[in-house]
Amino acid sequence: MMRLSRDVAGPCLAPRGSVIAVGAFDGLHRGHQALLAQVRERAQALGCSPVVVSFEPLPRAFFSPEPVPRLSSVREKLRGFAAAGMEETLLLRFNRALTAMLAEAFVRRVLVERLAAREVWVGGDFRFGHGRAGDVALLERMGAQFGFRACAMPTIQLDGTRVSASRVRALLGAGEFAGAEPLLGRPFVIDGKVEYGNQLGRTLGYPTANIHLQQRVSPIQGIFAVRVGLGEGECSWPGVASLGVRPTVNEVSQPLLEVHLFDFEGDLYGQRMAVQFVAKLRDEQKFDGLEPLKAQMALDARRARELLGMNPRLAEA
Description:
The chain is of the alpha/beta class. Helices cover 31% and strands 26% of the residues. It has helices at 30-46, 59-63, 74-83, 96-100, 103-114, 136-146, 165-173, 177-184, 200-203, 290-307; strands at 3-5, 18-22, 49-56, 88-93, 117-123, 149-153, 157-158, 161-162, 189-193, 209-212, 222-230, 237-244, 256-261, 272-282. A six-stranded parallel beta sheet has the order 1-4-3-2-5-6, sandwiched between helices. It has a six-stranded antiparallel beta sheet with strand order 9-14-11-12-13-10. A hairpin with a 2-residue loop joins strand 7 (157-158) and strand 8. The longest helix has 18 residues, at 290-307. The radius of gyration is 22 Å and the shape is elongated. The termini are far apart.
């Protein structure tokens, strides 16, 4: 079972030494997966612990004056680390104190003292420390001093295109889920706990299960054909979803994920639900009242059924 720690200071987390992956790891795409697999393999060869060092909030979000979309929640990221075979995760709080830490101090305090590094693996463009002064060259110099090896992971390419979180976000934002899936190595999914809403969907004939994204900024907004997984189940239940701020009713200031599961009866409140996005139907729009909104919802349901290989006539039953 993977252990989670949050602080720079503290006892050594890897007494038998460690092989470490360091990065933001938003989305855990195929490049990240290759890096974690390499760390696990090297740790097995050296007889030490595979460890990942990451940061929350994401560094780019900390420095940005505007909300920054992210591909995975903290929970999803941690589950990915565990699935990749990491024994320890040091999820450092990215705050002013950490941004003020010199790169050399980060190496000594985190990689050497906290984690007893034997190898440190990063992406070739990785930067760290105050003013982003730390890089692979600095890791190599300090590795020679403290007895660890610094390694830069080669860029992972797919069909001649570099696999990166920014590329995945761009594809998802354009509704190109089929194009993003090979880069992620899996379909794009948002999961969360179903919470109570205001029952408006039920009033309109389309009861929904709602997931509040809280402070997470999604890379997508609009209306979508989806497949849903309940609990730990596969994403197989067909549905139609809205992710946005509900401009017609103006009731939410932060994006809300609302999912109508086709032909479903039951109570989902309090359950975890995973939503796989299959195709974008349209952008959000503001309607002149609830009747036009209801009529559009019927069209959306019909189109979603078609895209999911269902009988669209059932949407009119």
